[in-house]
Amino acid sequence: MQLDEMWxxxxxxxxxxxxxxxxxxxxxxIIAFHIGSRSSKDAQVFYEKIPAVFKSNxxxxxxxxxxxxxxxxxxxxxxVGKDSGLTAYIERxxxxxxxxxxxxxxxxxxFSKSLENHIGAIKYFICNxxxxxxxxxx
Length: 138
Fold this sequence. Notes:
alpha+beta; two-stranded parallel sheet; three-stranded antiparallel β-sheet; 5 strands; 5 helices; single chain
């Protein structure tokens, strides 16, 4: 699994919200996401959202962010640099997400005024994206 996080905001830039994502590189579907701070506490909430079937025999590749290191089991987590290519799909998905969801563009007039709407818009996009990817692979 490939893991990454990206910043977003709700209402104003000072109200940063971090979008945590887990992507299955085999079928390129998003298997879990969480919106919160960039803390170890939110990393733990994110980890708990990952389905159990993926936790037992799966390697998790992420950057070297300390929250990943403290949350994910050492034998299953691998911190890698972007040059390794082991997080390429999730990095590409981040770009797709920013391009297709107007409220995630960094310099935009479109933004979420409430956290609930922000989560809903992201969830809607991810569900639709997973259906499109599934259709392309069959």
